[in-house]
């Protein structure tokens, strides 16, 4: 079809096959004229021809930065559809200033993060790490030493897309979780509608058995959980972080966990990865995974499916399901 839009793929080569397996790629090829050149660097000579004609850029992990120089090479560009979560890594304000539509598959990526977070919360509420370490050492915990999850207080930092998903799952659990929420942009009535009690961050730290972090990475949220706030956590509490490593002071967390006073379940760290031999990696009450809470393996095609759906919606002139607006850049993760 002559009127099909010109589409260019821009992501890391090893990501492409995961994001667009054959069935999805065939669907995309039916919707648009997909240029055969995969763009990983907008300044490369090979990128000149595809960018010159591109109306839609379908990006993914490893996408090149779309700044003024890149946009100058793509005069016809009208939409950037991202087959991953945040667009902050590659979409610059100039994209919005030029009126280019932007979409993200953050909703599709959120579901696995919620699942992962809930698994960590369940383990944390039962203090599974310490119990497992004792078991390996040959010590069987007495019944009076075991902790269940019923009635645990879960503190959620940030009513983000993922934070709200976690709250919804906590509410649906049969354990009678009490949910505290700290978010400066949420009113008490809004928190109550979500099923949580709004509180300030200090009181959330003091009152929670498990604290789970879902705030964005912003200058004002750097080390949101610093030495003082980590010190407010009650003995036996646990910290779950599937958001960004910069939200937690790593040195302060290391000191707290080294005492055995609190546990930590971390999918993100600062720095990431932690250097080999870092003390956190050896602590019996700390579990660290390499940023795997989001879509992994076969789950990644969820991101591609969301992106192809939005390409089709853009072609039809329909609102984008994952629409991102200029004002969002200042507050999204």
UniProtKB/TrEMBL annotation:
Protein's organism: Actinacidiphila guanduensis
Origin superkingdom: Bacteria
GO cellular component: cytosol
The protein, known as: Phosphoglycerate dehydrogenase
Entries under Pfam families matching the protein: 2-Hacid_dh_C
Lineage: Bacteria, Bacillati, Actinomycetota, Actinomycetes, Kitasatosporales
GO molecular function: glyoxylate reductase (NADPH) activity; hydroxypyruvate reductase [NAD(P)H] activity; NAD binding
CDD domains assigned to the protein according to its UniProt record, in alphabetical order: 2-Hacid_dh_8
Residue span(s) of domain D-isomer specific 2-hydroxyacid dehydrogenase NAD-binding: 122-293
Alphabetical list of SUPFAM superfamilies matching this protein: Formate/glycerate dehydrogenase catalytic domain-like, NAD(P)-binding Rossmann-fold domains
Keywords of this entry: NAD, Oxidoreductase
């Amino acid at each position: 079809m002559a009127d099909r839009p010109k589409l260019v793929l821009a992501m890391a080569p090893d990501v492409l096959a995961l994001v667009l397996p054959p069935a999805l790629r065939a669907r995309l090829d039916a919707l648009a004229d997909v240029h055969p050149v995969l763009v990983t660097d907008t300044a490369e000579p090979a990128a000149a021809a595809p960018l010159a004609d591109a109306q839609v850029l379908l990006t993914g992990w490893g996408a090149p930065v779309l700044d003024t120089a890149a946009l100058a090479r793509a005069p016809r560009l009208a939409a950037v559809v991202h087959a991953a979560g945040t667009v902050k890594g590659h979409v610059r304000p100039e994209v919005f200033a030029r009126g280019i539509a932007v979409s993200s598959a953050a909703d599709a990526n959120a579901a696995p993060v919620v699942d992962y977070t809930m698994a960590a919360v369940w383990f944390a509420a039962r203090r599974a790490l310490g119990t497992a370490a004792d078991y390996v050492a040959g010590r069987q915990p007495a019944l009076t030493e075991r902790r269940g999850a019923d009635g645990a207080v879960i503190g959620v930092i940030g009513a983000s897309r993922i934070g709200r998903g976690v709250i919804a799952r906590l509410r649906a659990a049969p354990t009678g979780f009490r949910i505290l929420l700290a978010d400066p942009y949420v009113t008490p009535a809004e928190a109550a509608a979500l099923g949580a009690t709004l509180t300030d961050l200090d009181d959330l730290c003091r009152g929670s058995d498990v604290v789970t972090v879902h705030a964005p990475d912003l200058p004002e949220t750097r080390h949101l959980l610093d030495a003082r706030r980590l010190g407010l956590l009650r003995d036996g509490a646990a910290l779950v972080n599937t958001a960004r490593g910069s939200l937690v002071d790593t040195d302060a967390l290391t000191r707290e966990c080294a005492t055995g006073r609190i546990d930590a379940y971390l999918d993100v760290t600062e720095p990431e990865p932690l250097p080999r031999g870092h003390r956190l990696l050896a602590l019996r009450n700390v579990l660290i995974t390499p940023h795997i809470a989001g879509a992994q393996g076969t789950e990644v095609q969820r991101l591609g499916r969301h992106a192809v759906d939005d390409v089709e919606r853009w072609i039809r002139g329909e609102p984008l399901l994952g629409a991102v607006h200029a004002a969002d850049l200042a507050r999204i993760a």
